Input
Amino acid sequence: MKDDASRRTDTLTRIAEVLGPMYGSERLAPFLYAHLRMRAPRTVVELGTGVGVSSFWMAKALEDNGHGHLWTIDSFDALRDPVELRALRDLLGACGLTDVVGADAPALLREVAERLGLSSRMSIIPSRLNLDQDGHFARYDFSSKTLDFVFSDFLHGPDHIERILGHFLPRMSDAAAILIDSVASEVASYLAVERFVADLNSGRTPPSLSRGWLPGDHDAVSARTYRLLHLRDQTGGPQRTTTWIDIEPRRPWPSDAALGDHLPR
Output
């Protein structure tokens, strides 16, 4: 007979299989789990909860690490219709969660988090994200914290990427990552993020990116190196891409690399 931990892992796997295809996260969510297990972040922010697949997998990584908290934000507009909410309950029932009865999407997902033993690792925040509002993210509990990992599965046009980076780059820790879904699925977005990262690594911060920054933000951002990688799920459709910006202090080698005995004398 399986113990509670094994049953919860089975349920999490089933959630990825059943709910994951709704937003293309059935393989991305386990990737995020593995990545956060290795990175061991303490502060994680997700823009766009959807139906919670990636959220639960990231919270599970934090739970297995023994530290860290996830704040996940969504308006949940797509689940306000009672028909859509009932359909989500039915899908959760197919995952073995037959008795979740939340009256709305945030309550329903909080019930799932409780059943998975993850409620202490995640905060589900119903809120309409407004990237055009300077200081928008100051309203959230994580606003005073240094962030280790941001995953955005929200909007991914060139202007949206600019605003996401503008809001979060000054708030990231010295060893951090920002992942934005579907950027490489659109040429304009792909070219925009390539240009932004090239400018940052050249010590140039586009004025449009730094709108609303505080004194000292420019120095903090320019003191880092940004490595860009576009991940593609080769088994999925054209939207199955995730752009990964890795952030480290500016130095000629990785921050945790040992000097060893092989450097030229």
